[in-house]
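INTERNAL AUDIT FORM
Audit reference: QA-55
Scope: verify that the stored structure record matches its stored sequence.
Auditor: D.O.
Record contents follow.
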Amino acid sequence: MNHDIPPFDDPAQEREWQAQERALRAERLGLDPSNGDGRVRRYRLMARALREPLPSALPDDFAQQMAARVATAPARDEIGDSRSEFILMGLLGVVLVVAAGVVTADYGAAWLPAFRLLLPQPSSSATEWLLALGGCVAATWLLGLRPGRRLAG
């Protein structure tokens, strides 16, 4: 037994530790596995399993096996999958918009005035720059929607 470890304050933990130590000692010495109580036998099984090497890596022909499985697997309905994902994403978007509206209606009176102070005054030059930026973004978006556009490259 390992005498470097001080005894536990809890007698149940001490009994478990002692059972683990007896199991490790019995495994090292190769004693008869039928000796000892059930707890020691379970810990011996655990010690034996932990001592064994891990199973080997993938087989040499793993890629061929997977390719054969994929080739014989029935094709999934990609259109049905994407349609249901699209519906669920739209539903989630609607729920989030409704939740944002409810939160704004309930708590908006407390925090909206603070946001109004952050916005530039209508007569400032920052407002003009924000409007110019918005116009550039809108023009870029509209030009990107033009049919028959060609990508450079």
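Auditor finding: record pair retrieved intact. The CA atoms of residues 15 and 111 lie 60 Å apart.
Action required: none
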